[in-house]
Specification:
It contains seven helices and 37 strands.
Amino acid sequence: MKSNMDQEQRIKLAHRAALISGIFCGVVALLLILNFWHMKQHEPLESKTIEALVERLSNEPGNEELKEEIRSFDLLARKAYFTSRWQVKTGTWLLLIGGIILAVSLKIYIDLRARIEEPDKVSEELLRARANAQYWLMMAGGLILGFSLVAAYLTNDYLKEYQEMGVTEVTGQDKSDVEVIEVFPTTASEASVQGAENDSTGTEQIAGTGEAVNSETNNEGQVAQNQPAAAQVRFNREDFKKNHATFRGYMGQGISYHKNIPEAWNGSTGENIKWKVASSKPGYSSPVIWGDKLFISGGDAKSRLVSCYNRHNGQLLWETEVTGIPGSPAVPPRVTDDTGLAAPTMSTDGNRVYAIFATGNVVAFDMNGNQVWGRNLGVPKNHYGHSSSLMVWGNKVLVQYDTSTSGRMLALNTATGETIWDVERPVHVSWASPVLVEVEGKIQVVTTADPYVSGHDLETGAELWKVEAMMGEVGASVAYGSGLVFATNEYARLVAVEPKAGTEFTWENDEYLAEASSPVAYNGLLYTATSYGVLVCYDALTGEKKFEKEFNNGFYSSPIIADGKLYIIDMDGVCHILLADASGTVIAEPELGEGGYAVPAMADGLIYIRGEENLYCIGK
């Protein structure tokens, strides 16, 4: 009797499991089908509203409120797209799991029912009816499951379609001469490399940079101009601290070592504006500095170029168009207005200045504007446009080249452009930039992409560690401090990890997540800013929130620390200056008078800011 009761209980349990899992599968299947139908009816990245607003903007190019409205709608469209993709992926897995549970519970239920009934009481007609019912039940369930999985599989990747519509790659383009435009004569003192001191502190001998370079095209499609044999280069990291040579300064970590940085200016009235010049071409790249020279890149559909200014008076020393690189696309790839063709920040080592563009062209100029080498890495498949900035260290130019088709990172020889190492990575497209960190006396190249935050050996490119942490559109680069790497991204999380093999999260948070602005770590604190205008400070070791401050506009520019203060520019061009501590004290909020997206560059007593239209030098 007890055995029969146990049997009945097992039958009821199996029946309930089958019923619940069947209803669950039905609901998930219905949602997947509805999602498939909705995405077919309304392509998320082809919003009629955005098209209408862009049409209005063509007639009202100076309408800042309209530009902000377009950005807001674009952000909503991207959020809707990634939410939908996440629903499809999650729903498919849930449907598979639910289907397995349904099949197992039905099997158990049928077997138990067969055992409990007496054979003589089961007629042949009843058995036939049961078989038919089971057959049609399985057929209906299988059809729903199959149709839902097909709908999930056929759901379009609109980002891929969007990117492919405007990209044309043409190889074998003829070389042409590089045009150098000298607006002001360059003196011998200006042409010399500044800050290359011969002291012993932080100085390393770099091999492979003193070779004579022949004028020829190698098998990697690289162009080298005739250059005399150079003396062996001595690499001094202290020179990199004295200058502002890369995106976010020394090692890309967002820390400046300069003092007496201004706290008050007004771009509209001219208060504390030492000089102001209009940019020759549009671009979101930030300025870099070496010695007396300041560099920016710019570009549009007609041409891409690098400009060099005397940083003390704003004189344009030279401006060189990037031409003659085999493999360059005849037509630039399709990019969005908020990325453009010149979003990556250049890098310099005092010997040459290096630039990369959304066409896939990487190029090196000497300090006088002569093109030394150039090569095309292949047009990056990137639906907004390539924006990962270059990093230079020793004899290597580091390129993070994660696209929608493959993950890749390269180290190129600074003197020749030849590949030193080239590693494939199991990641998706990323707009973040490489950051250097020193761990136990060795330099690591740390990057973030979907889904991994990872560290690579500088000398070989070998992967040292990685942790799965990100998803979606990764735009913010990592921060480093207190022995931890910090990575964040909208729709993912903010994480802290130790840069070592087998690492796990030290802490994580998902309250305030950055879209494009990179975090910065300083004196045991971590600062991060969002595109909706919130600046947050955390304890770097524990993740405890110290303060959050909300401002009137969002942040695409990244915070940078200088002279014990935090500087961050919002999209309206207002620079919010705070004490770099846990108090959240705002010192000043000077205005540029135009939109701001680039990261400021610092020099003693001066700050350089690139606005939407102009380049500014600020100081007394």
